[in-house]
């Protein structure tokens, strides 16, 4: 079995990180792209057609970041609410850009049918640094819990809280990348003082259903739409995807609330987490964005049909 020492340069193998190790990790993080240019500017361009609000602000020593949400212009309390989130893991580019593309190209199609609430980039600090965690070395997508220690997660939970009971569908847009295996899982093992256990990265698109609220027909409807754009990930030799049993083609399950995952925050009847594979030789960056858009459309159309 390989150990943490063979894979990650921060900390002592077998010992969880303390403040000094977190600081050392933080020093390694560098800005690689601009949230202002690649996200905020695109959201600003939507203001003529949609309502844009700032629901919070990240205030880290390295900078301040607005947390922005986009809503249907003519919000109607008689209509169901549909929630789309992206960029909970900032490095997962198509989740952010796919959400923005959906708003720009397709959100108007749902005017009068539902209220859309889209949060394209939950973790702007992570977006700029192409990083899974936030500046506190916390994973926002394990932090959707009461009194969350992650400000990104706490802010989104506060945004969504008044809408609970009205949200019918929540789709959370993610990616599974080669760097999960080369960087982020080794970092997690190192941070927690555990051995790194290598896994496999699936080639293709898949979904994560809620094991406590299974909606198999919903997942299949989403995958059917995505399949028009890109390929669905096959199960590995063990019949699994990233260590979880495949319950239907391109579908695995997690207990969302118990794990503190974003898709648990809304209390929606229909929830799913998308996983795009941007490192596939069979998919371009635009295809990855298109797959996220297709997933949102598939999710919305099913939820509106079934109610």
From TrEMBL:
Domain Peptidase M14: 32-307
Domain of life where this protein originates: Bacteria
InterPro entries: Peptidase_M14
Signal peptide: none
Biological process terms in GO annotation: proteolysis
GO MF term set: metallocarboxypeptidase activity; zinc ion binding
Similarity field: Belongs to the peptidase M14 family.
Protein's recorded name: Peptidase
